Structures
1.
Amino acid sequence: METRDYSMLGESGRLAVETGLATAEWYHTQVPRKEMKALMQRADGPAIRDTIILFAGMMVFAVIGVALWPSLWSLPFWLAYGVLYGSAMDSRWHECSHGTAFKTRKYNDWLYQVASFCMIRNPVTWRWSHARHHTDTVIVGRDPEIAIMRPPVFFKLIANFFGIFDTIDGIKRMLLNASGRLTDEEATWIPEQEQPKAIRVARIWVVIYATTLALALAMGSILPLMVIGLPRLFGAWHHVMTGLLQHGGLADNVIDHRLNSRTVIMNPVSRFIYWNMNYHVEHHMFPMVPYHRLPELHDAIKHDLPAPNTSIADGFREMWPALRRQLRNENYFVKRDLPESAKPYREDFHVAAIAAE
Amino acid sequence: MAWIDAIATDDVDEEDLIRFDHDGKTYCIYRSPNDEFFCTDGLCTHEQVHLEEGLVMDYEIECPKHNAAFDYRTGEALRAPACVNLNTYPVKVEGDRVLIEI
Ligand code: FES
């Protein structure tokens, strides 16, 4: 396989369309319709509870952080606030973009807007880019959300634990959009009638950030930025840690989520922050199932999936050496064994990836 | 346009849908929570994924791929990423049969 071209307008993307890898029909575990219908049912209760906990937590940590500022004692509170702002909001952004968090659509939309702002991801642009991530998961040149490109650039991966590149990219795009323009790639996946919305949101955000910045300058203190903006950096590590595990070190250019996605059993705090996206194979196979039903979905289909990683550390133990091997051989990936009860991988669908193993 | 005998009323549960293929085209027939029947094209207008695995809630069908939603009575696209409405078709019930006009 030749060098990968991750641009949405490049050679790999063109090849994926030509070979039928793009917008292909993906493998699904068979689940009886009645059972699946029950799993897909929406509810407001769990997400209202979690959202109250989230915002109450943010408020308490921020108030204590401000009260103790600039003492070092404020640090743990800022770190806790940061993780809720810079990581929990990532999973809220994600779940609400699917519209599955709440039953009531306006609650989804409302939390989606707040979370998009915290993550500096334009809510219009990213809705379409995330749709593409689901159509063409880890298909090179088609999926705009591939977190680890091959060969991996470790310096970038590590810098992103502090949100550095994502934030720079987010700000650059926000300013560009606010000036009334879109990048060429954005223009390829946002339908024309939606483009003005992307621009309007970017303009509102610029006003909010400018006001925060002006306040910081007037006060001669970074305190306002500790509440708005900077937590996107110092709170990003948790969502990057969990996000890299989603697909890192696994196959690309396949159409079976069991080969390119990873389910990891996690501690309850991380699951709250991550809103159960540790059940990642399950989420990709059945994106209509709300986050709070994913543990049940996992039980219903685990006979057909590779065994989950048993912890975040276990996931990294599998992924990190694979990434290092990709430095020497970018075609390398971890192919997990399936249990005997599972339907085998369709090797004929994945000739290129499997042959490269 | 002709009336086609498509399914039996019992073929589909309330607040659910069933796929119906005819003459090289594919449709979805819905039974609402109030026991009415409706029919739309079978494929989502976003990326042509079949709606048969989707979720019916009240009068909406949600696409299984990227969760676009449509009002299946009118075909109206209610939620991104779909922006184009679904085609709908007249339906009538005769005895225990559901007929669609296509
Ligand atoms: S194919 Fe239906 S929402 Fe994308």
2.
Amino acid sequence: MMDSNGAADDTAEFNLRLYVAGQTPKSLAAIANLQKICEENLAGRYKIEVIDLVVSPQLAAGDQIVAIPTLVRRLPPPLKRMIGDLSNSEKVIVGLDLRPIGKSRT
Amino acid sequence: MTERAANDTEYESLTGEELISRLREAEETLEAIRTGAVDAVVIAGSQGQQVYTLENADRPYRVLVEQMQEGAITLSERGTILYCNERFATLVASPHDSIIGQPLTRYVSVDEGRVLSNMIATGAGPGVSGEFGIVNCLGHEVPVNISLIDLKVDEAMPRLVCGIVTDLTSSRMRTRELSAANERLANEIVERRKTEENLQLTLDAAEMGIWELDLSDNRMRCSLRHDRIFGNATSPVPFDLAALADRFVPEDQHKVREAFETARASGAVEFEHRIRRASDNAVRWVNVKGRTFYDGKRPVRITGVTADITQRREVDEQLRQAQKMEAVGQLTGGIAHDFNNLLMIIGGSLDMLGRRMSGDERVVRLFEAARQAVARGSKLNQQLLAFSRRQNLQIEVVQINDLIPTFEHLLDRAVGETVKTKFVSGTDLWECRTDPHQLETAIVNLAINARDAMPQGGELVIKTANRRVDEAFASRWEASAGEYAMISVGDTGVGMSAEVLAHVFEPFFTTKDVGKGTGLGLSQVYGFAKQSGGFVAVTSAPGRGTVIEVFLRRSTDSVPIVRKPAEATLETGTGVVLVVEDDADVRATTSGMLQDLGYSVLSAATGSAALEIIQANAGLDLVFSDVVMPDGMSGVELARRIGLVRPALPVLLTSGYTAQRAIPELPTGERALLKKPFSHSDLSIAIRKIMASVSAT
Ligand SMILES: Nc1ncnc2c1ncn2[C@@H]1O[C@H](COP(=O)(O)OP(=O)(O)O)[C@@H](O)[C@H]1O
Ligand SMILES: [Mg+2]
């Protein structure tokens, strides 16, 4: 699992799970993009789990994943998901409500 | 997929808001698929969930990457690991999942991490690579090569970097092993070269040539020294077994071939045979020694060394010859001694008979014949004694050039008219110590041999010269280096073969017909020269004449002693003489001779008996004693004892044997020794001289 750039499991404010399929270009892009976005907006407050469905396809059922890559915001609730390679960071920030501390919700 | 979601009964329990949210999600999914924002989908089938990617076609490559023995990684632009294969996971010894998202630099040291980040950041472009040490999760460092290449998918995508991580451990190990092996090999080569050099040095010092015979084609490889031994030209000539065998003298060739043939099976070859050296055509002895090497059971080559052993063989031969001469000398010496006694008896008896003989002419003739035979026998015996070096030499300091007139006179009669005689005397000839009588005999013996060698006539040259003899020359003739006066007798006769040369000095060795040769001529020359501290050298070849050189040691004594001519008269006298002699016949003969000369004679068989008689007879005038007596007291010892009890009583010793040292001296300083065999006249003169000198003092 990937748990980088963030706080320890339990204390992380944002718990993000990214479903990828091995190294499809979109999967690789999604990982890279997510990492960048988090580091820039949520430094120290996030935890990313990358789940490779090629390695463990049964994990797709839990979050009802149909398309890959899919990012799921598990914490804070409510559960939000975003499909695609996360290349539009603005959209990601808005969609997942990755509001940096001190910034008001848009 | 939308159908599947719509038909799913679980949606029935959802609230309206949730349903709307789901619907939006489904729409978004569809939209994403449509726009290409996703490149994989999950489909639930009978075997559970299955992932289909847009690049399923890449599956073979994926398998390859997963299976390959290099670590494969995909990095983000900032060096985060986005993907790694199993091999990489094994390299860093971490579970696959915990690696994704880690910066690659985490697995290298801080210093290397900086280099690595730089490598990633500056852009791999068409490819860069470098060696790093990966510190895996177990704390072990693994040497790797990391090569990176930029992966451009499309413009919109962030830059990705692909990397191949190659484990260098085994290659490093192999390199290390290889270099260790190399080093070992290099050391071995150095060692071997040293050994070889040492061997070469040793072989060179031992003057040994090396050769190797290839048994597949009988070719030979030979060292320079080997070529030199065989007298080959300086440029190496191709050599094979046949050519080698041909170099040996004809009678040895088949033995050489046989030896090499046998060596194939026996495993070794060794022989000593004669070669003819190419450079000077000289016959040389060589020792060849080798070992056969096998491939399994098949002999493949014979390797060995060859040495020229001519000199050793010569020395051996000289030694053998010297020992033989010594043994023969001992033997003949013994025989000659016994012979002397017999001749003494015969000669002495004849002398006495002669004085009582009637005038019958026939008897006188027979008598004379007997006397001459005794004289000849006695002469031969002298030569035997000379050879065995047991003759009493009358050593004097002699200027040989002064003797040449005597030689001329002697040789005129000896050599006959067909032979021209020439004398070449060296100037300022050194004096030497020798017995001039024996030297005369030697020259006559040599001249007679020269005459016999020139039946059709020729030239005989007698030469004298000073010679400084070096060690090498001297050792060939069992002599020592030094200064010598040399007299040589050369002829232009038939010469001698090597076989004859090897035996010439042996007594009784002759190539002449019975009655013509005694085989004692050169024996006399040899023994005489040796006994007077010199030696004889012979140079001769068949058809090329002969030169025999007699070397006599230079004397530094200043005044030559002048010889006195011997008289041949009977000197009668009066007085009482005690004859001491162990041989009864000789005693009787000697006593008879003395009585004939007018002396009164007493006799004793041993030294002790003689001492008793001396004690009892105050009127004794002279003791005449043999030197060698078997009962223990020698004549010399007897003379010493007499000197103690009756110092005034003169003692005359007689011996046909070895040169005696402790011979008592007469008041005149001469040695009181009469050489055996002695004639009636010799005896008379000797006794008279002593009696005269005694009465004079
Ligand atoms: N000047 C010479 N030329 C050729 N052969 C010689 C000569 N002197 C000696 N010899 C050989 O050496 C042999 C031995 O010589 P020597 O001892 O004098 O005995 P002899 O003369 O009685 O045979 C001779 O028989 C002869 O073969
Ligand atoms: Mg002779």
